[in-house]
Amino acid sequence: MADDKLAELLKTQKSLTEWLEDIKHTDAALIRKEDNDKRERLKVLSEIIGLPFDQPTQFEAADLRDDNPDFVSFLNERGQELCALRLMPKQDGLPKLRMRGKSIKDAYAWFNEQQLDPAKYRADFVPHAPDSSWATIFIVNTHGIQGEIIFGGHHQLTQGFHDGAAPIIFRYDFKDWTMTSQDDAALEHLKKLAALIYVPDTQVQAKLAEKLGATFVNNYLQGYFETTDSSMGTWYIDYSQSLGNMYADTIVRTAPASSSALVSGQTGSSGTATGAVCIVSPDQLDVNFPEGGILVCKVTTPNYVPLMQKAAAIVTDQGGILSHAAIVARELHKPCIVGTGDATQKLTTGQIVQVNADDGTVTV
Fold first, then answer.
1. 121, 90 Cβ separation under 8 angstroms
2. What percent of the chain has pLDDT over 90?
3. Residue 282 gets which letter from DSSP?
4. What CATH superfamily classification does 263-363 receive?
């Protein structure tokens, strides 16, 4: 039952903006606007420095409703291609509607089912690769290029659950690369990604600063980035300055091994806390969670937000250091340890523990 419920919850994951809106984050509106405009920023980067991105084919939503000839031609020629359809609001306060993994033809059918005012939306048909290889989430700040890479679907990083091997955590301090697991192919891909945002020409930097407010460190573009790689090529799929600013002082470190720890993992959000363990499975979300308890679960989904707000700390079996849940824990100022592998098996409800998210350990 619990595993079935988890699978059900993982199918209904929210965007990071929606997570932040759930906790009433002060910058949620700004981050939502930045998320809505991200491909416009990526387009500027593509035009100026050749950054590859998942460039959409764009129409006014009214073009779809009115069978505009250009749209009809697009539908007839490319209707069987896979896409992600994003209905982007043209006014503040309206929701972004989206679906992915369907053909353009099926996405058009889905559009016709939506109850919206076409005059207030733009339709972005974003290419959707039929396969996947490397995916990354990383930040670039004064401490380096640092984040996670996984061989598989990008959703595994954003949502924090993994179909197979856990992500490799990496850091490039502008001198050397360090990784939690040595993988030559992964390292080669990371170097390729880094080269794509390396901008040594100061005139080009000035142009990007003027157009995007871009900033640089050691000639690398600063910010928060997401990328995918597939048979269709390598794409940057997000560039966020607001999220980059949230992690401006972050240094990603690998948690040291500890023989005294009950469980250990990676730092999703730093800090320490002591309290009673409360293990919550996906089918027990209505539990009377104690204020100041230690929330322990397989992976946090949006449904766990009310419990995360009550918890003194959060410990998960899966999850990543830059997953949506880890970012939310950080913004809630809750110590969070992710990727322990077995916290729900080794800890017991009611057990008094200390969570030291700074070094990724849970001890008696």
1. yes
2. 62
3. G
4. Phosphohistidine domain (3.50.30.10)
